[in-house]
Design goal:
8 helices, 6-stranded antiparallel β-sheet, binds adenosine-5'-diphosphate, alpha+beta, 6-stranded mixed β-sheet, Rossmann fold, binds magnesium ion
């Protein structure tokens, strides 16, 4: 089922009587989610992720715009008739019901031609439970389960009606680090296996990057960029996106372009043919630094951290926006930590320029 968002907008009336300012939680969001894909909706807290999801589910009504499931306009359809499965951060299981009863619950309210026999319901409940591998826990109460198991029950309950669209709002946030990793891989498996079009909301860029077919990066209700995770990482549209993706985060310097050369401080650090003269923010990915005695970028060396395969070099520079610069280099490089400075040359494909005032990407030809 492909899902189309057409100029989707949600404006909340002001909660602050004094300022009277309304909140544009989602602004003019247009996108066609391809059938059977997992979309990661990514951005910092308050950027409008949950609101977007609630509009898709029907729990909230848009201020403007339309939503289509396939060819069907579902904008005015109530949540219970949309055929969506919902999973929230806080599981929201019924504490007094067993796992089986929790999973059965959505099936028991089916009316008319959709009504199922007891046997059919049990079969569907066990199918869903097997999918998330909790079929041996069916008689337990939620309080007798771990957080990870509870979240699987919530996922099974969302899947039991075989929804047209699966909507997940920060479903892994309450799990500890190890379980979060494991459950996200499992989610990806379940999604691939069922082929249900899925929207996955998270503020965790690594989580979104690792399981999404496409990511949508949002800021203040406005979509910043949509693309495959690797494409967005390799080709960020603006400074916000560049900073939001990647661990360790991108290093940002102030610099300027003059006559096709990029300057950081007084040093010409890179040829940037095609870029017009201007003040810029320079984003350099941690993997974009090459230790090089002849390199033009000279940083004060603070220390190194050995990480097995790689070395993380920590340094500083007066033009750096971050307090420390982190570069990741192969452990085959020898770094003399007694040196007060370290010099780098730069990989052009890992250097991004942004206009200093608009923060929009400034293109140059990497030769
Ligand atoms: P996210 O899920 O990305 O953290 P939300 O969609 O929950 O963001 O919220 C987006 C913006 O809308 C925030 O500024 C939030 O304060 C505001 N907001 C959310 N719900 C309401 C509401 N019911 N009334 C007024 N403002 C709201
Ligand atoms: Mg939210």
């Amino acid at each position: 089922m492909n899902v189309t968002l057409q100029n989707l907008t949600k404006i909340y009336p002001s909660r602050d009587k004094k300022s009277g300012k309304e909140v544009v939680a989602v602004h003019d969001f247009t996108f066609e989610i391809p059938d059977g894909k997992l979309i990661g909706l990514l951005g910092p807290s308050g950027c409008g992720k949950s609101t977007t999801l609630n509009l898709l589910s029907g729990l909230q009504k848009p201020t403007g715009g339309r939503i289509f499931f396939g060819d069907e306009d579902v904008t005015d359809l109530p949540a219970e008739n949309r055929g969506v499965g919902l999973v929230f951060q806080n599981y929201a299981l019924y504490p007094h019901l067993t796992v089986l009863q929790n999973i059965l619950f959505p099936l028991q309210n089916l009316k008319g031609k959709d009504k199922l026999s007891k046997e059919q319901m049990l079969e569907k409940a066990y199918d869903a439970a097997r999918l998330v591998q909790i079929e041996t826990l069916m008689d337990r109460k939620p309080s007798e389960l771990s957080g990870g198991q509870q979240q699987r029950v919530a996922i099974a309950r969302a899947l039991v009606k075989m929804p047209r669209v699966l909507l997940l709002d920060e479903p892994l946030s309450n799990l500890d680090a190890r379980l979060r990793l494991q459950t996200r891989e499992e989610l990806k498996r379940i999604q691939t296996q069922t082929g249900i079009t899925t929207v996955f909301v998270t503020h965790d860029q690594e989580e979104a990057m690792s399981i999404s077919d496409l990511i949508v990066v949002m800021k203040d209700g406005v979509v910043q960029q949509i693309g495959k995770p690797q494409e967005v990482y390799d080709d960020p549209a603006n400074l916000f996106v560049a900073k939001f993706l990647g661990t360790p985060p991108i290093n940002v310097f102030t610099g300027c372009v003059r006559d096709g050369q990029l300057y950081i401080g007084n040093a010409a650090v890179l040829d940037v043919p095609g870029a017009a003269d201007q003040q810029v923010c320079v984003g350099i990915r941690p993997e974009g630094f090459i230790p090089d005695e002849q390199g033009a970028l000279c940083c004060k060396l603070s220390g190194i951290e050995v990480m097995g395969r790689d070395i993380s070099v920590v340094s500083t520079h007066d033009a750096s926006e971050n307090r420390t610069i982190r570069s990741i280099i192969s452990a085959e490089n020898k770094v003399d930590v007694t040196n007060p400075v370290i010099r780098f040359s730069l990989k052009p494909s890992k250097v991004f320029l942004f206009n200093e005032s608009t923060h929009a990407r400034v293109a140059f030809r990497a030769d």
